[in-house]
Amino acid sequence: MTDYTVAVLEDAIQLLGLLETSSDGLTLAELTQSSGLVKNKVFRLLFTLEKNHLVERDEAGRYRLGLRFLAFGQHIHDQSSLLKASDPALDWLVAETHETIFLGVVSGTDALCIAVRESPRSIRLFAQVGRRVPMYFGGIPKVLLAFMPDAERESLLAGAASPERETLTQRLAQICVDGYAVVVDELDTGAHSIAAPIHDYRGRVIAALSIAGPSHRFSDECVARYIPLALEAADQISASLGFKTRQPYTNGIVK
Asked: Residue 248 has what pLDDT?
């Protein structure tokens, strides 16, 4: 098979990936060491990226992602049917619960947060668009994993130890039966998460949303009230994407 990739572009993407994972920025030396590229090449790539506002450099010589990515992000937001469809439901859900609302999708082997509505309360969970979390932990990851087609789910579970895998498989099966997940003390200690699946027009689960907050605010009565709210918000988004009915799942798809 012919390889049509452009090597220099892949090198630039590698540098951007390193900057994406660094909250404090990286120096030329650190980027050179982490990337394994020649220093002169790294400098030229950074110079080009900086010229095009894809990276920026501070007075200490540390590089960070540039402001142009904000424009890219806004453009994606405007064009994305999922994000557009989600906006009213997420706004409604945070108004109803006063807790933090997350929207997530599968990205590689992780769950990726693509939208957040922060709780208006002073004590709330850490919320950040772009946060990646393992598929094994948390409400949204577990829902995404539970409703994933069999082959994809088995591939992700292949690395888990046998006892853990068996327990997780049973938990995922129960989520499919219930149609939602209630998770405690997984991604964040002392936190509750109630997550529900979002379907596209084909019936496939393409995203999940969650109501999340400190456990001391999630009494049994609150959890009982939040579950149907999460399902209703998820159904609103699914309907906006063309999904018609909620029926039993087969291999990650509603039949």
From this structure: 46
